[in-house]
Amino acid sequence: MAHVSAAERRPQLIKAAIDFMTREGVAAGSTRAIAAELGVAQATVHYTFGTKEGLYLAVMEQLTQDLVAQVEGAAPADGGFEETASALAVALWRTVREQPESHQLLTELTMFALRSPALSGALEAHYRGVTEVTARLITEAAERTGQPLAQPTDAIARFFLAGFDGLTLQHLALPDEEAERTCLQAFVSAVVAMAGGRLELVPVPAN
C-alpha cells in the first residue's frame, strides 16, 4: 500500500470528521470512530493531529474558513456602507439557511471546547481570529465607502458576531422565515447605527 503523508492525510481526516460528526454529533466523534469513517488506523489520527482536541480544532478552523470564503466576495464593488453591511450579513445568513449542519457542528464544537481545558486556549485564539477577519471586512468597507466609524472596529465586529450567533441558534432551534427576515433587517440596522450610520431600518435584499 502506498504511503500517504500527514500533509495529504490531514484534509482527508478533517473531511471524515466533519461528515461523521455532522451525522452523529460531536460526542460520538472519537478518534477511533473518525479513523473508521476514513478506513485508516486510529494511530493515523493521533500521528496527524496529536490528540482528539487537535482534530476538533482543525475541524472548527476548516468550517470557519469555508464560511468566511463564501462571505468575503459578497461586498458590492461600489455600494455604500449600509449596502455593504447588508450584503455581507445576507451572504453569511445564506450559509445558515443553506448549510445549517455546518453551523450546528460549529456550535457543538464550541460548547465542547468550553468544557475542555485542552481546548480553552485554542478556542480563544480561534474566536480572536474570527473577530479579526470580521473587523477587517468592516474596515475595508468603511475605507472603500468613506464611512467614518464611531466605534472601534473590534467592538463592532464583536457586536456583529454576538448578534449573528444568536440569530443562528434561533434558526437551528425554532426556524421562522418571516420572523428571521425581520430580525435580520433590524440586526443590520443596529450594526450600521453602532458604526455611526442613521438609526433606521436598512433594507435587506431577499435571499
Care to describe what's here?
The protein has helices at 6-24, 31-38, 42-49, 52-72, 81-98, 100-114, 117-145, 153-173, 177-195. With 207 residues, it is mostly helical. It folds into 2 domains: 1-50, Arc Repressor Mutant, subunit A (Orthogonal Bundle); 57-195, Orthogonal Bundle (Tetracycline Repressor, domain 2), CATH 1.10.357.10. Helix 1 crosses helix 2 (31-38) and helix 1 packs across helix 4 (52-72). The protein is elongated. The protein starts with 5 loop residues before the first helix and ends in a 12-residue tail after the last helix.
Helix percentage range: over 70%
Query: How many domains would you count in the coordinates?
Result: 2
Number of beta-strand segments: 0
Class of the largest domain in CATH? Mainly Alpha
Indicate the CATH architecture of the largest domain.
Orthogonal Bundle
Strand fraction equals: under 5%
Give the N-to-C terminal Cα separation. Answer: 48 Å
Helix count from the secondary structure assignment: 9
The unreliable regions are none
Quick one: CATH superfamily of the largest domain? Tetracycline Repressor, domain 2
Structural class: mainly alpha
Q: Main β-sheet: number of strands, strand sense, barrel status?
A: none
Protein name: TetR/AcrR family transcriptional regulator
Pfam families: TetR_C_31, TetR_N
Keywords: DNA-binding
DNA-binding region: 30-49
